[in-house]
Each structure stands twice: as structure tokens, then as C-alpha cells.
Amino acid sequence: MKPLKTCLLVALALLIGGCATYRRQPLDAAAVEAALHPALAEARVTAAKFQHPLIKPLVIDGRDGFTPDEIALLTVITSPQLRALRDQRGVAQAQVVQAGLLPNPQLGYTLDKQSGNTDPSLINGGGLGLSWEVTSLLGYRDRVAAAKSTASALDLDIAWQEWQAAQAARLTAYRVVSLESRLPLAQATEAELADALALARQAHAQGHVTTVELAAATEAWSAAQDARFALEQDLTAQRLSLNLALNQPADAPLKMKAGANPPELPPTAVAALLDGLEQRRLDLVALTLGYESSEASLRAAVKAQFPKIGLSFTKAHDTSDVKTHSYGVSVDLPLFDRNQGAIAAGQATRQQLFDEYVARVAEARANVVQILSNLAVARTQLHTLEAELPELEQIATALDRAMQTRNADAAAWRDARGALLARRAEQARMRQDILELGVALELATGRPLLSSN
Questions:
Q1: Is 316 within 8 Å of 126 (Cβ atoms)?
Q2: Is there a domain that residue 56 lies in?
Q3: Residue 143 contacts by C-beta under 8 Å, 6 or more apart in sequence?
Q4: What SS3 state is found at 44?
Q5: Which of 43, 147, 354, 421 has the fewest CB atoms below 10 angstroms from its CB?
């Protein structure tokens, strides 16, 4: 019985020494609330040492508000969706560890105990054997390579989704700044049209204005009020979206830094933007690594066709104390299972990744060309609009001076003021459109392009 006890003790020691321990992590209300609304002060500390292939670390003060770039970085740090996405890295690393593990050898002990024997020269027989499947070595490197490529692809995919989330939050912040600048213009337009409507009602009561003219003034004021309501609702929605992206309460005050000029997109040729696109877009690089992982998995599946071979060694003695040493080899006969299913699945997965990569490259190139075309049109429209503004400003200024001396018609003055305010609001909207196209071009090319002026 001594060899049996020794084997059991050795096996138990090895088993206990490599075991992990369980620690309870309750999903209680306090833990959930703490994770729901993290303090932005802690996120600002993390932002100063943040590491990302596309997003630069920033030193964020935050006392006088946040810039769109700061909002983008804070969103990446605090977003619960992105935190859950980053947790997948632990699963991928665990799969790398698992792929690097070989099957355990098997240790066996047998005891032949005497029963009904009176011969005192006979003893109990027994045997001690060790066996291991050696064919696991055939696909070992391919399995490890596949797991590592999958983990690297996941890292890049997470970085790409972080970049997209950052750009979305940054764009929302720019929209908030733009809406805050356009809202006073809409309010001024509504106020002037309200004054014009009041004068029109007085003139209509005195018979100086027709009912049609009064209806037109009423319609103009109503349209201006609706435009102001739409801007206020859009501004509220964009602020709520920012708070949600930052994982803050919906009613949390969030001040944006105003006064800084928005970044401008330098003129860039299509060829320069398309050159090296596949190496810059993190999602395309991640697909490349996924394809490499699929290749390695397919190689491992093909090698797994080789029949399983097990080697064994046994040391034994019979009841007459005759000792023997046995060596054995076991081989699977591949009559039915030759790993056909795994090989077919691996080939289909590889082809799917190849086609997906080609489709996404084509889509990215088309998006770049389309965005640049839209940018050219938007810039031309803005240039035309800005060329008209000085003349409208001169007319409005001249009518202001004429009104002070009562040498101008009030209706002409209001029309000139309304046209100027409308053009300024349109200018702010078009600048926002160009900025949004710039962010879209950054996403399509996978690199920062907007530069602060």
C-alpha cells in the first residue's frame, strides 16, 4: 500500500499547488452606484497618463470647462460600455494561456490483492504506469499563434472602438458649442420679428396694413419661434448625450470652454489620404491579425488529422513478485473522424475574413472620396456666404444710422437686420457642417487630421 499512498500524496500536492482560489464579488447596489457615476476628478488624473495609438494624453484642469478634445478623452476613460469592452482583454489573455497548455500526463496505479490464497510465498501484485498523448505537440505552435493573434486583434479592435467613441463625443461637444453660438442669433431674430408683428397689428387696427400682410408677419414670427425651439431642444439633447457618454447624471452641469476657434482641416489630396490607409485604420489592422489567427487555426486543424498517439510506461510485479517493465503505444484509427468539420469551419472562417477585409477596404476608400467631395462643396458654399456678409453688414449699419435720424423705413431696417442674422446663423451652421465632415474624414482615414488654428 505504500506506493499507492505515495502516488496519491504526490498527485494531491500537485493538484493543490496549482489551483486558483475563489473570491466572491457581489453585485450589490452600492457597487453598482459607485460604478455608474465615476468622479471626473479621478478621470482627469488618468487622462494625463493615458496610452492610446490615436488619442493623446491631456492634462485637464476642468475648472473653467472642458474642450471638445478633453471631452473625447474623458469619454474613453469613463464610458461603461468601453470599460466592459476592455474587460474582454482578460478573456483573450486567458485564451492565450489556455492555448499554451499541453494535456496533462496520466498517472495510474493498480493493485492485485490476493483472495482465497493460502500460499505464503505469494504477495499482492501491483503496477505503476505513466502515459501521455504526444500528438498534442503537432499543433501547439499554431494554437498559440492563433490565440496571440486573436488577442492582438482584440486590442486593436478595442482601440478602434475607443477612437470612434472619442470622436462621437468630440463631435457632440462641437455641436454644443455651435448651438450655444447660434441660439442668441435665433433669439434675436425671434425678438425682432415679434416687434414687427406687434407693429403690424397696430397698423392693421388703423387700416394701414392688409390682412395678408398681417398673416405674413405672424407666419414669419411663428417660424422664427419654431426655429428657436428646435435649437433649444437640440442643445438639450446634445448636452444629455454628453452626460451619458461621460457616465454622469443626466442633470449634471457640464460647462464647455468657449472662445477658442474650432480646428480646421488642412487641404489634403485624395491620394495622400488613401496611401497606407490599410495600415492606419486600426479596424483593418485588427482584421489582418484576425485573418492570421484564422490561418494558424486552420493549420492546427489540418495537423489534428494526424492520428492521436499515446505513449505509456508501466512498472509492475505479479503475486509471485516477478517484476516487469512495460512500454506501450496507442494509436487512433482515423476511420470516421479525420477532423473534417473543424477543417471545413476553418476554411469558411478564413474566406469570410478575407471577403470582409476586402469589403471594408473598398468602403473606407469610397468614404474618403465622398467626404472630400462633400467638403469641397461645403467650403465653396461657405466662401460664397462669407463674401456676402460684409455687404449685408454695411447695409444693416447704414440703416441703423438712418433709423437714429428717422430717415429710414422701419420695415426695410427690420428686413436688413433679419437677413444679416439669418446669414450669420447659416454661417455658424455651415462651419459646423464642415467640422463634422472633418471628423468623419478622420474616422474614415483612421488618423487625426484636424489641427487647431
A1: yes
A2: no
A3: 99, 296, 297, 300
A4: helix
A5: 354
Q: Which three cell numbers stand for residue 408?
A: 429710414
Kindly calculate the radius of gyration of the chain based on its CA atoms and give it in whole angstroms: 37
Count the Cβ atoms, other than its own, within 10 Å of residue 212: 8
50, 81, 52: which is closest to 60 by C-alpha? 50
Residue pointed to by grid coordinates 458649442: 177
Cell of 352: 469570410
Q: How many domains does the chain have?
A: 1
Distance of CA 228 to the CA centre of its chain: 34
- d(CA 364, CA 358) in angstroms, rounded, equals 10
As a residue count, the chain comes to 453
> For residue 317, what are the domain limits?
106-114+121-137+307-338
Single-letter code of the amino acid located at 304: A
- Asked whether the beta carbons of 447 and 439 are under 8 A apart, the reply is no
Summarize pLDDT for 73-128 with one digit per residue, the tens. Answer: 888 888 888 888 888 888 888 888 888 888 888 888 888 777 777 777 777 878 88
pTM: 0.76
Where are the alpha helices (H) located in 208-251, listed in sequence order? 211-245
Is the Cβ–Cβ distance between 126 and 7 less than 8 Å? no
Cα(329)–Cα(406) distance, integer angstroms: 113
The answer to whether position 329 is within a domain reads yes
Is 440 a domain residue? no
Whether 411 contacts 220, CB under 8 Å: no
Q: DSSP states of 161-217 as a string?
A: HHHHHHHHHHHHHHHHHHHHHHHHHHHHHHHHHHHHHHHHHHHHHTTSS-HHHHHHH
The 10s digit of each residue's pLDDT in 252-305 is 778 887 544 566 777 777 888 888 888 888 889 999 998 999 888 888 888 888
